[in-house]
Amino acid sequence: MNTEQHAFLAHFMRKNQFVKKLILICCLAICIIVPLVFFIYSVNETNGFGKELLGAERYNDRMTDSYLYAAVMFIALLVVIFPFALLLHQFFNRYLIILNSLEAKDVDRLKKLTANVGMMEKYNPSCIFRKNTVTFFTLFKTHTVSFFDINRINITRVSYKGISYVIAIETVSGKLNYRFGDLMLTRSLIEEACLANPRIATNSYNSWNF
Length: 210
Prior knowledge:
single chain, 210 residues, PH-domain like, 2 domains, four-stranded mixed beta sheet, three-stranded antiparallel beta sheet, 7 strands
């Protein structure tokens, strides 16, 4: 791997991990901001009534409840969001395992791929090509498939809540289904698969490539 390829791969990995940190920070921000907004609103409402109107005991109870409910809300959000944040952390770390195993030609393919795809796929693409395989990334796991084990790839263009592409892959060991949101990534998958294994059958480009 030459200097330019090393530099690109290092840059890609930094951007990939930056996206991870940004999402995790947003998750933490939700846990903090929502209880904080509730607390400020509750305190302002209590102060709006005033201690004279509510009485000292009622006023103090409402202020105590504001702290208590905000703390409970923070803990509840943390319990809900933490497992999701952990999944995201593992999801992005799985990219590092694959990226660190790429060879020079694989880095060139990744560079070509990311130059054409949209921003949503630029630093965390739904698949990465490595040697004669493709690795698909989902929130829960990665799945690596050899192009030589693929018999057929069928692409279906779906127009529901935006344009997406359903990838149905028939392999020697079973069927796989994925959904891409990027046309260029879908094209790249077909091109790389057929280049590595010309025996792979595909449906007509005209049915989805637009």
